[in-house]
Amino acid sequence: MTFSIVATDGVDVGVAVSSKFVAVGAFVPHAEAAVGAVATQCYANPKLGKVIISMIKQGLAAREAVERALSQDVEKELRQIGAVDIRGNAYGFTGRECPEYAGHVTGHGYVALGNILAGPQVVESMARAFESQRGELVDKLLAALEAGDRAGGDRRGKQSAAIIVLRPGGGYLGLTDVYVDIRVDDHPDPVAELRRIFKIWELTLLQREDPLDVVLKKDVAGEVQEALRRLGFYKREPTGVWDEETERAFRNWAGYENFENKIRNDDKIWGSLYRYLLEISRR
Description:
six-stranded antiparallel β-sheet; Ntn_hydrolases_N; 8 helices; DUF1028
């Protein structure tokens, strides 16, 4: 009993979902980088997600994969499924026995779907938000989920939310395909909490800073030294000169905060990291 959106932009694949159900992220989203993504919901059969992904990987389009998987399910009219393949083919299925309101909207590269919703405006709002939001796939998925939440979402209430976005080599230090993977398993406002955690994830793990959003180390040396001193990483009085000791203290702080992938080997600091350092040093 859930609302979700499944999508691809031809590079990333992902699912965003929310429900009045504990840990919805453990059951609804299924995805494989460079292959596709699936949401299995209503009286969910998570096995279908793996089967559909496997069929897409073998070359089937999203619709054919879903239809073949459901043909083996005697309770398919209780199921709701959205699927996309990496080529942008999208297909939604809402079984006749899914509790009202239940429905889906399909567009190029996405399916917005849900059941036990406040009304059709939930999936319609998600589709509009997805199509109008600029940015990467993760931005479009989050915008769609927030739009569905504002439009009434699950009419029973709120409990959990999740988002997963996969990109080949797009994960931590390029060692995984997990670009974003966040779950809010039990919270009074899970979609808002998902957005809050995403901001931390983005700052810590995503490398998509504006190339113009930088500061020169020499211009902020005194501020950074003072901030690092307050946090216990710089042991001297600020000199206003960015020297080896300042560089070492800054790198130690960045590693402590898990920002090692945001360290630059030049004379600049990312603006996002600089602002965060000043902010936490003043708390």
